Amino acid sequence: MKFTEQKFTEQGTGKWIVYIDGQEWTDVLKKAKNRVISNLEVPGFRKGKVPPAQVEKYASPSKIYNEAYRMMISPAFDFARSQDVKVEPMNSPTPLPKKVSEKELVIEFIFDLKPEIKLGQYKNIKTIEKPKTEVTDEEIAAAIDQYCEQFTMEKTKDSKESIVNGDAVIFDFEGFLDGVAFKGGEAKGHRLVIGSKQFIPGFEESMIGLKLGNHEIEVVFPNDYTPELANKKAIFKLNITEIKTRELPKKDDELVKDLNLPGVNTYKEFEARVKSDIQKQKETNLKNQFVNDLIVEIAKNSTIELPKSAIENQTADLKKQFEEELKKQNMDIKKYKKKTGLSDEQINEELKFDAIAKLQSYLITSEIRAKEKFKVSENHLNAKYEMFASQFGIDVEQVKTMINPEILNGEIINELLVDFLYSNNG
Fold first, then answer.
1. How far is Cα 289 from Cα 126, in angstroms, rounded to an integer?
2. Is residue 132 situated within a structural domain?
3. NCBIfam families from the entry (predicted)?
4. What pLDDT sits at residue 216?
5. Is the pLDDT reported for residue 162 higher than 80?
6. Are 216 and 113 in contact, with CB atoms under 8 Å apart?
7. Whole-model pTM?
């Protein structure tokens, strides 16, 4: 047997080609002919007892060639796989008889190309600045208010009282453009805390001072809203059915006792914990964003060959995920196109762009992990176990029984990669 290989970068495919000829092919044909004859079934004769005159009639060359080809697929593939191949497959090669004759058999094994990368500079990149984090008093207050929400006391107001900022309001509403109700602009029994900024600018502010009963308010949709509503003036008809005052608990040590957070006993400690949590979350988010931007720079310094098939498959996966997300929002592609004004071509182009970025990121991070050989130590694992134990208020040994070690190892390796890139760049 002889072997050659071919690479078709634009198509994203490759071939392993195996040639069987000479005495080897002659011997294979003999074995194939004997196998065809032994399995030949001719009316009036028992299997394997067909007279030579009938054999020549029914055991045609095409049957013998087909049998010989089937016999050689596995040996030819094993031979190709044993070679020092330069063209690597991404999936299982598909065999195809390119040529079958009395003199030779040529089998092509066709496959999608494995993505290739020649990693460029990934350390000491100075073109991206490291972001600075700062926690404001407003952010701390907002986070504490979220904790307080679970202990908020509500009391229904008298029918003569009007809405003030902070009240919870139950109401029906319907929106109109030029006197015509628009789709998606109505709801029954909706609950809204005034000042929570759930609705478009001006909506909640216009409800302040209103009482129970029917009202109309006028608002203008913002510029960045859906195309069919952006910058348009709308009238909303409201039917306010209930107004409630809301009293948040006092921010003191009693609140901390009710919250029962592990390791937190006083309100001062609680404030410090909230600030620390916000700081950590901000640092994590900004660090991840820095690394994502860094990977884009690394891709510019690297040579990456992505097969067409890999891009198409990744794009198809992203489209499926995108459609699932739309379903969760009670929407489909048709409604999304109407809402955004995008065409199928534009959506597919965006998904393709994201697919390429995702594949490049995967190849770059995989290559860096392979080069740097990050290792998970006992200290890494114990720190994680203790973090989860503290977070959920349970024993470390119990945490160990709840977490899959392989998943935890992968998570730590990814954190080590992010820390490495963050520390060695910017």
1. 15
2. no
3. tig
4. 96
5. yes
6. no
7. 0.67
